[in-house]
Amino acid sequence: MRVAAVQLTSTADVEGNLERADRLTRAAAADGAQLVVLPEKWTALGRGEAIVSGAQTIDGSAISWARDAARELGIDLVAGSFSERVPGEALLRNTSVHIGPDGELRATYRKVHMFDVVVEGTVYRESEHEEAGEELVVSATADGVELGLSICYDVRFPELYRILAIRGARVFTVPAAFTVPTTRDHWEILLRARAIEDQAFVIAANQIGEHEPGLRSGGRSMIVDPWGIVLAHAPDRECHIVADLDLEAQARIRRDLPALANRRPTAYSWPAEARVAR
What we know:
Layout: E1 2-7, H1 14-30, E2 35-37, H2 48-53, H3 61-73, E3 76-78, E4 82-84, E5 93-99, E6 105-110, E7 116-119, E8 122-125, E9 138-140, E10 146-149, H4 158-166, E11 171-176, H5 180-198, E12 201-206, E13 208-212, E14 215-218, E15 222-224, E16 230-233, E17 239-244, H6 247-256
Parallel strand pairs: 1-2, 2-3, 10-11, 11-12
Antiparallel strand pairs: 1-17, 3-5, 4-5, 5-6, 7-8, 9-10, 12-15, 13-14, 15-16
Helix pairs in contact: 1-3
């Protein structure tokens, strides 16, 4: 199974973002990709006002384009994530959509973990404009390959991916807009750890470059196999990368080193709350 990750420099220019996403998605399909993953906030990326003004409903122009493209190209398309305006809700959602080769929506995942952090003195408060989702989502490609959907900051929460793997996910999709410092120091380690511990493929499509003054993403999109080997790694520019996933090798790894099967759920219990250094 050939897959692709698309790396973009999205801005507040929705039409420009759509044009570049279309061009690179078509290039990935021309390279034989059966599954293409776009990055987080590929439709519009910036600080608060850019996110709010670029938000769309799930039947807006962005997902309409994604459905048409998937149908025309005959691919499974994980349309990264976009800021979703949900009728009746005050806050937006950070939403990833999986679309099948028939152009139909196969799954919708709303980001569970809000990026409310401080990175090298810069404050990020995703929850000011977006509300967290509550449901973990496993989908499947047209060929029956199970996908575990996630978004960016989720990759720091291994329990999410373990549950997806237990539910049958063989491939994790990680559309992201990782900051430059966290891409530099954490990105590859986190992706390879999620792949190794859950014996799953990881397709991680990151944003690259400056989205507006003071807001930059680190790129380095990559595709990782269940042994933790990086199969493809993006250069520092807008581009797409492809890799072939050996599903038989994955089955062999899970059989010979049965970490998922050797779990002992009855021995695990969640503490009432996390102990955090003050």
